[in-house]
């Protein structure tokens, strides 16, 4: 299951863990607006009513799979793109099927939180959150991607503070968080 921590300030290999202060899943969700679910890996490929309900409730109408590994075309270039800090105008939804990796998300105080994902972990990164991705030292992750409508994966590199998705993220998530109205985005632990 997912682990998360504030990253240390070292600037060496991005595939190293860079473990700083560890935080639990609820803290990670509360401090970023990221939503988290867990689906037992043995049940993901079979009919899973909880996953189907989530997809229906959030109107995910398209899904595909992506595998990130050294044999993929332009692997090094793709890693650069994934690891460059960016945001999207839509949610980013990933369900890990195999392997592991790191999603780094900026918290509401602009500090990096590293989210270490494993099979069964599903993350929903809100539109407008600054984030990046890198596989861990195993250099392998296979994940399902979910979309509302046709797939759009357009990274908008930082700085993008004037982008409408970023403004909405700041208004809906950060302002409420800082005003003491903790947002409930932890999802359910589903097995």
Please give the structural blueprint.
Blueprint lengths: L2 E5 L11 E5 L1 H8 L2 E4 L2 H4 L4 H9 L4 E7 L6 H9 L2 E2 L4 E8 L1 E6 L5 E6 L3 E5 L5 E5 L5 E7 L8 E2 L6 H15 L13
Antiparallel strand pairs: 1-2, 1-8, 3-9, 4-11, 5-12, 6-9, 6-11, 7-8, 7-10
Keywords: Amino-acid biosynthesis, Cytoplasm, Dioxygenase, Iron, Metal-binding, Methionine biosynthesis, Nickel, Nucleus, Oxidoreductase
Pathway: Amino-acid biosynthesis; L-methionine biosynthesis via salvage pathway; L-methionine from S-methyl-5-thio-alpha-D-ribose 1-phosphate: step 5/6
GO cellular component, one term: nucleus
Task: Describe the protein in words.
The protein has 191 residues and is an alpha+beta fold. It has one domain (3-178): Jelly Rolls (Sandwich), CATH 2.60.120.10. It has helices spanning 25-32, 41-44, 49-57, 75-83, 164-178, and strands spanning 3-7, 19-23, 35-38, 62-68, 86-87, 92-99, 101-106, 112-117, 121-125, 131-135, 141-147, 156-157. The chain has a five-stranded antiparallel sheet with strand order 2-1-8-7-10. A five-stranded antiparallel sheet has the order 3-9-6-11-4, with no helix packed on it. The longest helix is centred in the last third of the chain and has 15 residues, at 164-178. The radius of gyration is 16 Å and the shape is globular. Mean pLDDT is 90; it is low at 182-191.
């Amino acid at each position: 299951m997912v682990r998360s921590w504030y990253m240390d300030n070292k600037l060496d290999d991005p595939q190293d863990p860079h473990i700083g202060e560890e935080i639990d899943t609820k803290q990670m969700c509360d401090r970023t607006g990221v939503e988290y679910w867990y689906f037992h890996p043995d049940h993901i490929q079979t009919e899973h009513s909880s996953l189907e309900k989530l997809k229906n409730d959030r109107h995910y109408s398209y899904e595909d799979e992506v595998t990130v590994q050294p044999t993929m075309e332009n692997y090094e270039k793709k890693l650069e793109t994934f690891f460059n800090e960016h945001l999207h105008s839509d949610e980013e939804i990933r369900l890990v099927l195999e392997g592991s990796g790191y999603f780094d998300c900026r918290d509401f105080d602009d500090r990096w939180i590293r989210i270490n994902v494993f099979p069964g972990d599903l993350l929903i990164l809100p539109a407008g959150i600054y984030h990046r991705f890198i596989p861990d030292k195993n250099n392998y992750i296979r994940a399902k991607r979910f979309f509302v409508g046709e797939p759009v994966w357009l990274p908008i590199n930082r700085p993008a503070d004037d982008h409408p998705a970023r403004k909405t993220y700041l208004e809906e998530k950060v302002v409420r968080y800082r005003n003491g109205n903790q947002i409930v985005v932890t999802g359910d632990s589903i097995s």
